[in-house]
Structure formats: structure tokens, C-alpha cells
Amino acid sequence: MAHLQFVDELVREYLLFRGFASTVKAFENDLKSDKDKGFRVDKIVEQIMHYINVSDLNGFKDYWTHLDTLVFTKLEVHVQPAVRKIEYSLYKLYLVIAAQSTGGVRNEKVADFFAKMLPELQGQSEWRDWFMLPYIQKPEENPSFSLYFTRAWQDSVLVSLHNLLATVFQCMPQPTLTSYESDAALVKRLQEEIATLKGKTLQQNEKISPSGHQSRLAQYSERLSGPLPLIDDFSAIPTEHLDSGLREAKGLRGLLRQMGGSPVMGRKSGRSHSQN
């Protein structure tokens, strides 16, 4: 939600334009004491770690209660255990950092934590061993607490907190004023799609337009208007048929010559002699 800073500037500019000077002053004061930090995850994690590092238990609880009321209580039921687990992990991180303090302040901070949190934690099994923490000289070497004093575990808690806040803020319903950027991007994308569809429609219309048909008909008419090739009447007869007919005629003539003449011609000559 980095764009919220820009929205804040728009609101301030609008209030100044309307002449709401007292409202602008109150708005700026609220921004200075903004617990939500403009919904910037890194700033919220930084604020939580500040309370933990200085062992400000009341400040941490108040800040977490604010986040719980604003965001976490509005989540679905199946997400609540994960939120509670991170909250308890932050409490354990608070104790680990408090136990690493030097001098008598260490035991004092740890004892103060359990004195304030006893009603909430005493009935939970995962906190049973933690009540021994004020009486252990070197808890970082104790098998029950050594894991929590490692850098890897502490970093994993902060990463889980960061991921939880980032996911929740992304899913939060936003007011209309903050959605102007996404709405503008949507309008621009729709305009581009409309322009693309118009171009495709024009191309299709050009392909199926009457002028296109007329141009193709003109091309066909030009081809038909040219001189037609001369066609021989006998060109349709296959050549092999003509060759076989000629061979048959030549063979018949040769046979008649061998027989001494044509029978038809002989009958004609005999008739002429009888007449004489």
C-alpha cells in the first residue's frame, strides 16, 4: 500500500483547496501519530521490534491490540490460530531479549513480564517451562530454551510476522479513493483492447467488401476478353488411335496385292467382258 502516501497528499491538497485549515491541521497531527504507519509492513515490524528491544511490554501489547482490532479480528476463523502463534512467538522473543540484558535488570524485566501475563499464559502447556526462565542462570545453554536464543529462530519470527502483515494488507478491502490507480490501469487496458478489436474488424470488412468482389470479377473478365486459342476438330482424337488405323489400312492393301487384285475389281472387269 505504498500509494497511500500519495492519497494522503491528495486529501491534504483537497482540504487546502476547500479552505479547511483546521481540518488540515488535525489531519497532519493524526498522520504523525499514525499507528498503522501507512500500512507499510517494514515500518510496523520496526515499531514492534522497538517495543521489544526496550522491553516496553505495555507499548507492545497496546500496539498489538490495535492491529488485532483493526485487522486480525476481521480475518477468517481458520487464520486466527496462525495469528495467535505469531503473537506468542513475539512474547517469547521479548523474553529472550530481556533475558540477555546485563545486570539485575534482566531478572527484573522477565519477572515483570510474567507478573503481567500470568493470567493469560498460566493455563497453556507451551508456557509451562517458560515460568522457570527467571531462575535459570544461563538459559541460552538450557535444552528447553537454547533454540530460542539462536539467530535463526529470531529471524524466522520476524519473517513470519512480515509475511502475515503483507498478506493481510493485500487482502484488506480498500476505499474507493485508494483504488484510483487500479481503475485507471483497467480503463487503459480496456481502451487498448477496443482499439485492437476495431482494427481487426476493419481488416475483416475490407476482405468481404463489394469492392473486393468487383476487383476479382474485373480480373476474371480481363482473362476471358483475350483471344481464344484455335482448336482443331480432330485434336480431340487420341494420336494412338490414328496410328493404329493407318497400320490396319496398310496391312489390308498388302494382302490384296498378294491375292492378285481386289475381288471387287475382278467382278467389275468380268462384267465388262460379257457385255462386249
TrEMBL record:
Which coarse location class applies to the principal site listed for this UniProt protein?
Answer: other
Location of the protein in the cell: Early endosome; Late endosome
Sorted alphabetically, the Gene Ontology cellular component annotations on this record are: early endosome membrane; late endosome membrane
User: What residue stretches are annotated with the ARMC9 CTLH-like domain?
Assistant: 46-171
Q: Per its UniProt entry, which superkingdom is the organism in?
A: Eukaryota
Q: Which InterPro entries match?
A: ARMC9_CTLH-like_dom, WDR91
Q: Which UniProt keywords apply?
A: Endosome
GO annotation terms (biological process): early endosome to late endosome transport; negative regulation of phosphatidylinositol 3-kinase/protein kinase B signal transduction
Q: Which Pfam families match?
A: CTLH_Armc9
Protein's UniProt keywords contain Metal-binding: no
Query: Which Gene Ontology MF annotations are present?
Result: phosphatidylinositol 3-kinase inhibitor activity
**Record carries keyword Disulfide bond:** no
- Please give the PANTHER family that the UniProt record associates with this protein: WD REPEAT-CONTAINING PROTEIN 91
Q: Which family does it belong to?
A: Belongs to the WD repeat WDR91 family.
This chain's protein is named ARMC9 CTLH-like domain-containing protein
State the organism of origin: Pieris brassicae
